[in-house]
Amino acid sequence: MSESNTPKKNPNNRITVTFNGKETTLHKWAKEAVAATDQDRMKDWRLVGLESQEEPQSSLDRQEMTEEPVVEEEELNSFNYYEINNAVAKPYLSPSYSKKKKKPVKKTVKSDFVLFFKKFWIPLISAIIVGLGLGFTVLVFFTHQQTTPAAQSSSTPDETAGSEAATTSTPVSDGKTETVDGKDYALNLYIDQLNMYSTKANAQNAQKTFSSQGIHSVIVQEQGKYALIGAVALTKADLQTVGKPIASQVDVYGKQWILSVNQLKGSHMDLQDIKTANLVIQNLIPLSLSAAESKPVDQTVMKQVNKAIQQMEDPGTDVSKQKLGTLKGTLVAAYSALNQSKPSGTEAQKALLDAIANYQLALDAYSSK
Questions:
Q1: The domain containing residue 298 runs over which residues?
Q2: What is the 3-state secondary structure (H, E, C) of 58-78?
Q3: C-alpha 133: how far from its chain's center?
Q4: N or C: where does the chain have the smaller number of CB atoms within 10 Å of the terminal CB?
Q5: How far apart are CA 266 and CA 368, in angstroms?
């Protein structure tokens, strides 16, 4: 056989390489690598090439990349997969990855009414709700902080004696003065008037004369004149009962009498003491009627009256506070006259007349003229 017909031995068959601990010839390893490469190309592998090589952008380029290249055996045999010196494999292929396509988001078009409602009406409704809440809170706060005069005057004496007297213990600075309406401190009474005089001296002389006859009376001012009164009640019918002892001795003139001033000016505590005295008098007058009729005195009201009197301040150094101190003393005397096992209606009336006379003096002392 001639030399031209004799197959040439591939020099790569004599090259033995070690891969993963196994020895094999370079030619055999290359065939196996080509077969694995063909199989991987079926899985849409792509060339990575150099770092500066850009990825094909069009679908046509992508199709060309997926076509299987024809590798000749000689090219395969001569292809250098290794650097012999370093014996480090350099793979030239890398699997491609497919990005998931995002589903298009359907944008809902909102109606003009919804946009208008969100932009204007929601803030407007929220502001209205917040405003109503704040207004209601302020209203409740001021309602509890203030007590109207009408609410005070509409209460019965029995109901207000304890509650109103308790408010006198509220600590308020005595250094500040207040001006209040005098109508809230008025006494609406029915009295038996003995006589009226133009001067206080004449009234005092007549008072001594009546006292010598065993008739107790006090001097009160009315429309610039001085009147002597001998009995007091809250109604006209009650006046006839409590005024019998004095009416049997002298001629009397029963009438309605309102004891009041226009305005009062003083410290908060002093004005509270005057209000307490007003309520105590209105509670003691019906109790004196019970004593005049020889009926039991309501002990519940008596306890409320005693508590209210004890909460009044002690006499002060100035003239106005001294008058309040004197008024407190006459209220204590009226309470003591009724706080007996068998209270006397006559003695209770005497003490009440003294308390009413001193109440008028206290109103005059704090009157804002």
A1: 180-366
A2: CHHHHHHHHCCCCCCHHHHHH
A3: 11
A4: N
A5: 9
**Final residue before a domain boundary, out of 41, 61, 95:** 95
What does pTM read for this prediction? 0.54
Which residue from 197, 353, 189 is spatially nearest to 257, judged by alpha carbons? 189
Give CA–CA dist 296/305, Å, rounded: 16
Q: Of 13, 39, 33, give the one whose Cα is nearest residue 24.
A: 13
Cβ 264 vs Cβ 208: under 8 Å: no
pLDDT at 311 over 50: yes
pLDDT at 40: 64
DSSP classification of residue 7? P
CA distance 347 to 365: 27
Which amino acid is present at 237?
A
Comparing CA positions, the residue from 295, 294, 281, 299 lying closest to residue 362 is 281
Q: Are residues 235 and 339 in the same domain?
A: yes
Instruction: Work out the burial of residue 130: count CB atoms within 10 Å of its CB; fewer than 13 is exposed, 13-18 middle, 19 or more buried.
Output: exposed
User: pLDDT class for 319, splitting at 50, 70, 90?
Assistant: confident
pLDDT in tens, 275-287: 999 999 999 999 9
Q: Are 185 and 164 in contact (CB under 8 A)?
A: no
Nearest of 260, 196, 245 to residue 345 by alpha carbon: 245
User: In this structure, is residue 109 part of a structural domain?
Assistant: no
The secondary structure of residue 367, as a DSSP letter, is B
Write the CATH number for 284: 3.30.70.1070
CB burial class (10 A; 0-12, 13-18, 19+) of residue 245?
middle
User: Helices 319-338 and 345-366: crossing angle, nearest 10°?
Assistant: 160
Q: Is the pLDDT of residue 153 over 50?
A: no
Select from 243, 191, 246, 244 the least CA-distant residue to 222.
191
Angstrom distance (rounded) from CA 337 to CA 88: 126
What is the C-alpha separation between 327 and 335, in angstroms, rounded?
A: 12
Asked if 279 and 201 count as a contact pair (C-beta separation under 8 A), the reply is: no
